[in-house]
């Protein structure tokens, strides 16, 4: 006897959306069942966000089918979408910082007791019950301000559960989380699935997609490409579908001749942050700095560049010692730092692309103290085209660019200073697979031209695929140095999680 397939919680078929002449969604198609976690993947610009915004009631579709539990729906507001049982958990939630955790969860629907007063006791009791059910320990009375992004997401999930949402959409939820926080989020996601809810998980991280989801839908250029059970597909197959071409070379590392030492760091110590850090980066070499979040990798990079101070040790570039706590000295010596958080530390998001690219070389460009937009744009154009920044004009505001293109603009800004040593922190965080291989190709090319590169990355495949040597940090110390030919995910992870005594 054939069993009837249950009605999907969400069903979109050939949904279209255009903004003027720009087609954001040609054919958005996805079917999500109750009790399942469905991955939605695609490069930046594939149409994932537009599709989510239609489901969330932010946009209205121009055509196609949109059904919820078998009923045709059409939301004209986010309130309608929420009322229908849909919750979207964004990468960086926006809570009210001055209100308590409990008040945030019950915002706009506080229960009232006799005389119409807000029943704070029952609100708090309900929040405690929710947190117990989700297996998290957050104080219901604390203000939302200062909470980690991971805890803010949990609060949004608790809010969704208290509203009895049947469909939760998680949009890049793990981008800013540590390993432990990701694991907690996954535990919560699985328990929601086991309760019979439907979840959509959007991510660029394939290891997470394959660990968490049971079904995967791929989009490309605003159109639906394919849906497969996770058990019947592979990362290679998904990448091919996303990019529409073979990405045989996600890590296009070219062989280079390693030259003389460019950056020498000796005995760098900052009490409580890192201890006795010594390493060398030579011309034409990519040195990978691996380790778990919180191992002290970014702090070392910031100290070398002079952003943060340190107590002991020396930093030399081409044999010359540079002063501590002075980024201007580091830049003059030929060091460039591309920081991890590009929006906050690397870009002036309200300014144009051209202005951003020339930020670090404005003094050299100015003639008699004058700098015109034309002069800026001429200098910026070379780097924008070399890095294939996808923008129609150099006056395009940086905030409107995709994550991958923002990363390229920050890279262009520092490469315009023509550095000897490039320190790049999380070079491909939050960018899609096609742009990833472009950034990797560029890093490899720069090493081929004789630049020394120190690459900090939390993505093991990236470290193993790009680095000539891998330095591993754990709790503020370097616990291993591994040659490219000997580096494996196992020995890098071992060094990142075990004390150095055990590595002898």
UniProtKB/TrEMBL annotation:
Signal peptide: none annotated. Gene3D superfamilies: P-loop containing nucleotide triphosphate hydrolases. GO terms for molecular function: ATP binding. The keyword Membrane applies. It comes from the Bacteria. Residues 10-246, 257-500 form the ABC transporter domain. The keyword Cell membrane applies. Keywords: ATP-binding, Cell membrane, Membrane, Nucleotide-binding, Repeat, Sugar transport, Translocase, Transport. InterPro entries: AAA+_ATPase (IPR003593), ABC_carbohydrate_import_ATPase (IPR050107), ABC_transporter-like_ATP-bd (IPR003439), ABC_transporter-like_CS (IPR017871), P-loop_NTPase (IPR027417). SMART domains: AAA (SM00382). Pfam families: ABC_tran (PF00005). This is Ribose import ATP-binding protein RbsA. The lineage of its organism: Bacteria, Bacillati, Actinomycetota, Actinomycetes, Micrococcales.
